[in-house]
Amino acid sequence: MKRIAVYPGTFDPVTNGHVDLVERSLRLFDEVIVAIAANPKKEPLFALQERIDMFRKAIGKRGNVMIEGFDCLLVDYMKEKKAVGLIRGLRAVSDFEYEMQMALMNRRLDEDIETVFLMPSEEYSFITSTIVKEAASYGGDVSSLVPRIVVQKLRKKFGSRQHC
Amino acid sequence: MKRIAVYPGTFDPVTNGHVDLVERSLRLFDEVIVAIAANPKKEPLFALQERIDMFRKAIGKRGNVMIEGFDCLLVDYMKEKKAVGLIRGLRAVSDFEYEMQMALMNRRLDEDIETVFLMPSEEYSFITSTIVKEAASYGGDVSSLVPRIVVQKLRKKFGSRQHC
Amino acid sequence: MKRIAVYPGTFDPVTNGHVDLVERSLRLFDEVIVAIAANPKKEPLFALQERIDMFRKAIGKRGNVMIEGFDCLLVDYMKEKKAVGLIRGLRAVSDFEYEMQMALMNRRLDEDIETVFLMPSEEYSFITSTIVKEAASYGGDVSSLVPRIVVQKLRKKFGSRQHC
Amino acid sequence: MKRIAVYPGTFDPVTNGHVDLVERSLRLFDEVIVAIAANPKKEPLFALQERIDMFRKAIGKRGNVMIEGFDCLLVDYMKEKKAVGLIRGLRAVSDFEYEMQMALMNRRLDEDIETVFLMPSEEYSFITSTIVKEAASYGGDVSSLVPRIVVQKLRKKFGSRQHC
Amino acid sequence: MKRIAVYPGTFDPVTNGHVDLVERSLRLFDEVIVAIAANPKKEPLFALQERIDMFRKAIGKRGNVMIEGFDCLLVDYMKEKKAVGLIRGLRAVSDFEYEMQMALMNRRLDEDIETVFLMPSEEYSFITSTIVKEAASYGGDVSSLVPRIVVQKLRKKFGSRQHC
Amino acid sequence: MKRIAVYPGTFDPVTNGHVDLVERSLRLFDEVIVAIAANPKKEPLFALQERIDMFRKAIGKRGNVMIEGFDCLLVDYMKEKKAVGLIRGLRAVSDFEYEMQMALMNRRLDEDIETVFLMPSEEYSFITSTIVKEAASYGGDVSSLVPRIVVQKLRKKFGSRQHC
Questions:
Q1: CB atoms E116 and F118 under 8 Å
Q2: Do D100 and F126 touch (CB under 8 A)?
Q3: Quick one: how far is CA A77 from the chain centroid?
Q4: Backbone dihedral region of D159: left (phi > 0), alpha (psi from -120 to 50 degrees) or beta?
Q5: Contacts of residue A118 in chain D, CB cutoff 8 Å?
Q6: In chain F, which residue's Cα lies nearest the Cα of C141?
Q7: pLDDT tens digit string along F94-144?
Q8: DSSP character string of chain E
């Protein structure tokens, strides 16, 4: 039986930490589906399709990784995909509390779903999409934190470095 | 001397965890006043009157529980009610930090007020109004997490389950 | 009906933070019983009787505070005393996690018991018996942190300040 | 390819939370090896062989679960077993910090090993072997927290309930 | 060589805790530059110039403290000022996580910058600009928490105490 | 005026994280004194003199770093050395709580002392002396985590790798 995992998120935009987590998930599962939440309420910087495209470029062509958008209840989505594992990255304590709440909620909504917490490489331990956008908005160099395609897209959005 | 406690919150909407906390408070105090903050800045999903009505239906008619709205400084409200205890639920660490700040602030504003932290039943330990609304907005079944009246109200707001 | 609370601990030795918590508990309960755990496994610095005596001297004669030792299951002790509230002080996050575990365990052992978390005055927020003993062991001046009787007892134990 | 996970611990003694975690792991892996650390430095209450026996009785005969002792570097043990996943339960924040340190250390010692954090059922969220032993040492009823065999063993160790 | 530190923030408005931190920084550095972020996205209550003026009045005329606004990448600003230390106050755990992320991010953007965490006096440990504004918006007395000039400015913004 | 900092600890043994912190401190202070606590109660693995020698070898000869043992109240030691800053590394949340308690205690004992928290490089963020000793006791390769001299000393203590 093929074991499938879903790795959900807003990925606005994808970071090296997210890519690292996909690689780690592939050691444990036969297939990983990156499920990008439409999340219009959060007013993402990048449109859903852009976020999908960036993640695809970052990962490259792979037989066992699928990247797509979704806009429904996560547990329904997973059932449809016949996924058994819900992948989440763990970085920090505040993360952890919220993640635990979400995991217990999802278990209540569907008890067949098992949330699997993985730890990104420590060099990516502090990277969040938010902090990347904040640095990039002032022209900070984030090329060691996000895939090349994201560096380009951020530069287009925010322009070049602002002088103090 | 009758000991009165105030249990303040936005309660947007009331959950089973909130109801559980009222029950627990009644073991310790002679009367509990649920004080629902108007909180227009937070843009609540439900209007103040709706939130009051839902909490009242959830609790039922009881001689020692009062439910009302308020829109002033909490410590002033408590003084007017001659309350000695300020009830707060403790769930998680991030909670705890914020709660401690609020409790110290309230003590500074009126040192006669004692914040009393109680722990909800562990089966409600992960429920927040926010997480309930998020699940319900996609049609998730939250009937084990909130009173029946809230299930109905949420369904009206968000409609039926969305397909993936 | 008289509401009784039990405030359990090792109190090795009592600090100003503990005394502060007794005062706060008296606003909420008709009677507070300070229950000092024998705790021989922890190898306390002071014998049980000494710990009882120090707490009594620190509190002084009061009609609504009782101080005694105990060496049995806390929930059994509370049932015998007809206590409804179990008082615990909350200082820090690590505290909080352990306290929450204990509270859920005690609830499982006897669901009639309600743990009530109170916050000590912020000027005592960092004081623990352990940190006091550590400072005192090198002759540090802890007279602003513990009752006078404790200062004397600690000085007897550890002698005068050591030179560097 | 068969995916094997190792679930290491002292298990002194096994609790319902540990058993729950084995069940959850079996959803994700083809085989789970419970690896019980000899850990003589920690002075466990039960001998290694007793801890192995109790876990075996608790789990029952199963083709995809193996239970054995080990007394070497965990990453060496896992390599020998050809395991890809290292299972750890996540309960609370203090846990989390320590677990993250251990996981990063193990990754440094062998980068092929992936630590997988799973969440026990919330009804076991507060149970630790330590808290169980503490309650049992005073005769507290822990039969809803540990397997039947452990209840019996603890009773033998600690005798019947002590009066206050 | 003169050692310069930058203490960045939104300071909307300055509190006694911020002033306390400037004093502490002056023990360690030869000059402290308070760098007030324009931060238009956060929609501050006070305009940048007002925030600068309030901080200046709060600190008074001092040769080794400079207060100014900035609207660029913090690490660029610091390089221009030839600053070696980036001062941040540490209050609570949630703080700590975010602060650590920011500090690691800034180190990545410029590895010559060292973030220095200092602890405000415990009497200010719970004060944040946010909590002060919330209390003041209902007319709460915050005169023990913020400089006199801020009390006046808040009163102008929010008017007198609202009745319950 | 020369600014002196003290970096106290048990350093049993020194790790790369400790060395990193000394380097960072030297950017901020004119002189750093590494003060190694005798700490006989903790039963260190290495004798005080060994710990001093290992730290000296790890740092090498430097005019602005001094390494010595101490066995008295830290604040007294610092006063004698005319030190203004007390350096502490911050790694994780549990750390943070304890560190904050110690810092407030030291401030109470001598209000002229300012505790300065620095963050080690993220690649050392999980290393503690304890975790290093645990890995080394089973023959784990810790050569990327501690100075070369410590690798040698640990090997002498614990012998070669144990087979599973």
A1: yes
A2: yes
A3: 16
A4: left
A5: 114-117
A6: F109
A7: 678 888 889 999 999 999 999 999 999 988 888 999 999 999 999 999 999
A8: ---EEEEEE--TT--HHHHHHHHHHHHH-SEEEEEEE--GGG--SS-HHHHHHHHHHHH-S-TTEEEEEE-S-HHHHHHHHT--EEEEE--SHHHHHHHHHHHHHHHHH-TT-EEEEE---GGGTT--HHHHHHHHHTT---TTTS-HHHHHHHHHHH-SPPP-
Lowest mean pLDDT among A28-42, A89-103, F148-162: A89-103
CA distance B11 to F153: 60
For residue B81, give how far its alpha carbon lies from the nearest alpha carbon of chain A (Å): 35
- C-chain CB neighbours of B119 within 8 Å are 100, 103-104, 107, 115, 117
Give me the amino acid identity at A145.
L
Residue B68 has phi, psi (to 5 degrees) of -150, 165
Given a cut of 70, whether residue F93 has pLDDT beyond it is no
Which residue among B93, B122, B126 places its CB closest to the CB of D123? B122
Residue F162 is classified by DSSP as P
Contact F98, C95 (CB under 8 A): no
How many whole angstroms separate alpha carbon D118 and alpha carbon D42? 25
pTM exceeds 0.90, yes or no: yes
The predicted model gives E116-143 an average pLDDT of: 92
What 3-state DSSP class applies to A28? helix
Res E82: pLDDT: 97
DSSP SS3 for A139: coil
The mean pLDDT of chain A is 93
Q: What domains does chain D contain, in order, with CATH numbers?
A: 4-125 (3.40.50.620)
Assigned token pair, B121: 């039943």
Q: Give DSSP secondary structure letters for D61-73.
A: S-TTEEEEEE-S-
pLDDT at position B96:
81
Indicate the residue type of E128. Answer: T
What's the pLDDT at B93?
Answer: 67
A31-37 β-sheet, strand order: A65-70, A31-37, A4-9, A85-89, A114-118, D114-118, D85-89, D4-9, D31-37, D65-70
Task: Give Cα separations from C20 to B96, C9, C61, C122, E125 (angstroms).
Answer: 21, 14, 16, 11, 19
Q: Do D125 and B123 touch (CB under 8 A)?
A: no
| Tokens, residue F79 | 């006063």
- What one-letter code names the amino acid at E152? Q
How far apart (Å, rounded) are the C-alpha atoms in residues F86 and F113? 7
- Tokens for A130, please give them: 């938010």
**For E88-117, what is the mean pLDDT?**
89
Distance CA F153, CA F53 (A): 11
Q: What is the ipTM of this complex?
A: 0.93
The C-alpha atoms of residue A23 and residue D67 are separated, in whole angstroms, by: 30
What distance in Å separates the CA atoms of residue C6 and residue C67, rounded to the nearest whole number?
10
- DSSP letters, F62-131, are -TTEEEEEE-S-HHHHHHHHT--EEEEE--SHHHHHHHHHHHHHHHHH-TT-EEEEE---GGGTT--HHH
C-alpha to C-alpha distance for E45 and E157, rounded to whole angstroms: 9
CA–CA gap between residue B82 and residue B60 (Å, rounded)? 24
Separation of alpha carbons F5 and F81, rounded Å: 9
Residue of F nearest to C95 (CA): F97
Cβ–Cβ under 8 Å, residues F124 and D105: no
CB F148 within 8 A of CB D60: no
**How confident is chain C (164 residues) per 10-residue block, as mean pLDDT?**
95 98 97 94 93 98 96 96 96 79 93 95 89 94 96 92 76
Measured in degrees and rounded to the nearest 5, phi and psi for residue E139 equal 85, 15
Residue B70, beta-bridge partner list: B37
Tokens of D50: 């007793």
**How is B92-103 classified by DSSP, letter by letter?**
SHHHHHHHHHHH
pLDDT value at position D46?
A: 97
Cβ-proximal residues to C87 (8 Å cutoff; 6+ apart), any chain: C5, C6, C7, C8, C21, C25, C32, C116, C118
C18 is catalytic: yes
